[in-house]
Design goal:
Elements (H helix, E strand, L loop, with lengths): L5 E2 L12 E2 L5 H7 L9 H32 L3 H20 L5 H4 L2 H25 L8 H32 L4 E6 L3 H12 L7 E8 L9 E2 L2 E6 L3 H7 L4 E4 L6 H11 L5 E5 L13 E3 L2 E7 L5 H36 L5 E7 L5 E7 L24 H8 L7 H8 L3 E3 L9 E2 L2 E2 H4 L12 E3 L1 H4 L9 H16 L3 H17 L5
Parallel strand pairs: 3-4, 3-7, 4-6, 7-8, 13-16
Antiparallel strand pairs: 1-2, 5-6, 8-10, 9-10, 11-12, 14-15
Helix pairs in contact: 2-3, 2-6, 3-5, 5-6, 10-11, 10-12
Keywords: Exopolysaccharide synthesis, Membrane, Transferase, Transmembrane, Transmembrane helix
Protein name: Undecaprenyl-phosphate glucose phosphotransferase
EC number: 2.7.8.31
Length: 509
């Protein structure tokens, strides 16, 4: 399979980097994959932060003017504060109704400003009208109200100008692009790309990288509407591993059910959105059944897990809780490091290549549990019970999983591990001479999220030695359940159950 890594045999130095053979891509695919691409920013998170900024700025201006002018004269009246907060919430609702919370709108100066000024004016007219009918007009300071209107508008205009420059800068960097590959290098693919290109302008976030096809004959075009064919379906996994891909869009008609299912069986392991274009299908569903890529109707097949605010929450959980745990276990780690050093010669820490998010290779840190001259950085031989390679201290720290504690450095400082997630396996781990991805269908679907120090499989007893097919299948099964049902509370539950699972010490040698 395309992710099966091959490492050069007999590494004399365990710290020497592994030589990995990777699936070859076409020159056209390599030209795209080798371009430096920055990390994407989520439009959902951006619009959420803009809403928060609007609330803080509007409420801050109103309260500051009230405390600086009205309260100094008449004393603090909480009714004013409540009215300011109500006006702020009404403003956010009005901005939402005016479609001001869209990344495309943030890029436009004139359209954004006219909508914002209209919505802001409407809120104040609404407040004045409500005050009049409630017979409170004489109790509201006109100086404060006018100052709030003018200063608040000025602050919002400055904020939106700054936001406009930021969004345009991110767009130039490619952080707002939805990097898309098209499946189907035929007439349907051409029609789809033309439909996407017709709506391409400065505000479009779709960037077509190229086309892939499962055929390699006269029916498969070399270029579709100017987009090059980058390879066959089997190449997509390697291509998505080398560069950022956000969306896979099928241009095949729904009638090609067998071909689509065969391709989906290979592509569903990717951490990307997968959609089926409906632009050429004669069968039409209700409009709400579709999601849209620009104006092109699509049917959702798979969605990338843990995105947008979920991703933000998980990262905060990892960094904050992981940092607290690291501080708490620092004395234990110091004692383990001393014991490892005194027990046998060699370094305290052991570094190993493992699978990370989207099959990337990451360096994972552990306390050394084997004799240094018998270290196995590729994990080509599974550690078994009473394994002579394991030191005396190593047996204890492996059984109690204390050897995993340095992975907190990966979580807190490097960010390539989570506290909770599918356990990262070494890239050369095998089951009866077969790599894990060859032994279990859908194995790489575990890598649709970042791996973790502990996980749902581990607290359910599936940890330690993998010596039969059931053990790796069960791990994959539990990992996929975790991915589909993730929540912060689920992470917290797994984290709290982990010490009990470790005390049982089952299957760990």
């Amino acid at each position: 399979m395309i992710e099966a890594a091959a490492v050069s045999a007999a590494l004399p130095d365990p710290n020497r980097p592994m030589v990995e053979r990777r699936k070859r891509l076409s020159p056209a695919a390599l030209a795209v994959a080798n371009l430096k691409v920055p990390r994407a920013y989520s439009p959902v998170v951006i619009t959420g932060l803009v809403r928060l900024a609007d609330f803080v700025l509007i409420a801050g201006v109103g309260i500051a003017l009230y405390l600086g002018y009205v309260a100094r004269r008449d004393g603090v009246q909480w009714e004013y504060i409540a009215a300011i907060l109500a006006m702020t919430l009404t403003t956010l609702i009005s901005f939402q109704a005016a479609d001001l919370y869209e990344v495309q709108v943030f890029r436009r100066s004139l359209k954004q400003m006219t909508r914002m000024i209209s919505a802001w004016t409407f809120v104040f007219l609404l407040f004045i009208g409500a005050s009049f009918f409630a017979k409170l007009g004489g109790e509201v300071s006109r100086v404060w109200l006018l100052s709030f209107f003018l200063l608040g508008l000025a602050v919002l205009v400055v904020e939106r100008l700054i936001l406009r420059n930021l969004v345009r800068h991110w767009a130039r960097q490619g952080r707002l692009d939805r990097r898309t590959i098209i499946v189907g290098a035929d007439e349907n693919g051409e029609k789809l790309i033309r439909a996407l290109n017709e709506q391409q302008d400065d505000d479009s976030d779709i960037r077509v990288l190229g086309v892939f096809d499962d055929r390699n004959d006269s029916r498969s075009l070399d270029t579709c509407a100017g987009s090059p064919k980058l390879g066959k379906i089997d190449d997509i996994l390697e291509f998505a591993r080398r560069t950022r891909v956000d969306l896979v869009l099928f241009a095949l008609p729904i009638s090609a059910e067998t071909r689509i299912l065969q391709m989906l069986n290979k592509l569903w392991v990717l951490p990307v959105d997968i959609r089926l274009s409906a632009h050429t299908n004669k069968l039409r569903f209700r409009p709400r059944a579709y999601s849209y890529v620009g104006n092109v109707p699509t049917l959702d097949v798979f969605e990338a897990p843990i995105t947008d605010w979920d991703q933000v929450m998980k990262q905060l959980f990892d960094r904050v809780v992981g940092g607290l745990i690291l501080l708490a276990v620092a004395p234990i780690m110091a004692l383990v490091a001393l014991a490892v050093k005194l027990d046998s010669p060699g370094p305290v820490l052991f570094r190993q290549k493992r699978f990370g998010f989207n099959n990337e290779r990451i360096d994972v840190f552990k306390f050394r549990s084997m004799y240094h001259h018998q270290a196995d950085p590729t994990a080509s031989k599974v550690v078994t019970k009473n394994d002579p390679r394991v030191t005396r201290v190593g047996k204890f720290i492996r059984r109690t999983s204390l050897d995993e504690l340095p992975q907190l450095f990966n979580v807190v400082f490097k960010g390539n591990l989570s506290l909770v997630g599918p356990r990262p396996h070494a890239v050369q781990m095998k089951l009866q001479s077969r790599l894990f991805d060859e032994a279990v269908d859908g194995y790489f679907a575990r890598h649709r999220v970042k791996p973790g120090i502990t996980g749902w499989a581990q607290i359910n007893g599936w940890r330690g030695e993998i010596d039969n097919e059931e053990k790796i299948q069960k791990r994959v099964e539990f990992d996929l359940y975790y991915i589909e049902n993730w929540s912060v509370l689920f992470d917290l539950y797994i984290l709290l159950k982990t010490p009990w699972a470790l005390l049982k010490g089952e299957n760990a040698y």
